[in-house]
Amino acid sequence: MSRRRLADVAVGAELPEQTSRVTRADLVRYAGASGDFNVIHWNERVAREVGLPDVIAHGMLTAGVAARAVTRWAGDPGAVVDYQVRFSRPVVVPDDGSGAELTVRGRVAAVGEDGRVRVDLTVTSNGDKVLSLARAVVALS
Amino acid sequence: MALDAGLVGRSYPPSAVYEVGREKIAEFAAALGDLDPVYLDPAAARAAGHPDVIAPPTFAIVLSLGAGNVVVEDPDVAIDYSRVVHGEQRFTHHRPVRAGDRLVATATIDAVRTVAGNDMLTTRVDLATEDGEPVCTTRSMLVARGVA
Lengths: 141, 148
Prior knowledge:
Chain A is α+β, with helices and mostly antiparallel strands. Helix content of chain A is about 25%, strand content about 35%. Chain A contains three helices and six strands. In chain A, strands 1, 2, 3, 4, 5 and 6 form a six-stranded antiparallel sheet that branches. The longest helix of chain A has 16 residues, at about 60-75. The longest helix of chain B has 12 residues, at about 60-70. Chains A and B meet through helix 1, helix 3 and strand 2 of A and helix 1, helix 2, helix 4 and strand 2 of B.
């Protein structure tokens, strides 16, 4: 894949919607890969003790999955020069084999003359917004 | 307990060198369910203009988590980690992290705030090559929920 051309980008354009699922197995894999072994991401007894409904996904797993919608659209993950997220609601991952659904929608919010394109993402799980802010800046030419 | 505003600007000694390996990048990308060839295949990465496989935009969290521990262990930072959640995260890439990078992480306290009884601590981690080339700046905001 090659990097998207700036000339082909317009404010208001929508990214292809991305839908995926996060299961308990995905949380174990992400814990190992990231080094984040916080117990609330794999042990429901501890998760409930601290007042959560069940095991929740790592925020950075959600953020990483959401970034995929941008990197795929941009054509080169190396185009991402800035990415920021604000976590507003946990993604609850039940131990039922199918886990939680994550839907990512994106829209081009701004195009700068310097080729910097801002993409705003909306990330939901079962209809609830889980990131109150998710914004990427990609450098195109 | 409110965080001391005088902590802002406090910087910690640089970390040991972290060498970014192709396998670690592939493992991290797979954990995100992302099989983009620029993460996995050096030839595909070179075709896209990168010297070697590059890491996903959020990979720097691996180094940021490790480097942030110096703040966690600082006895002057009075934050109750049993009540901490990850509030915000930002990555500013000066260039993509790539395999073969030998990176040094330097943590700095960027901001402390107390809002409605919740302590908020923002730690910045600057990642640079051991030769001093800036690669990525991460900012992590932790929130310690106030006791109601």
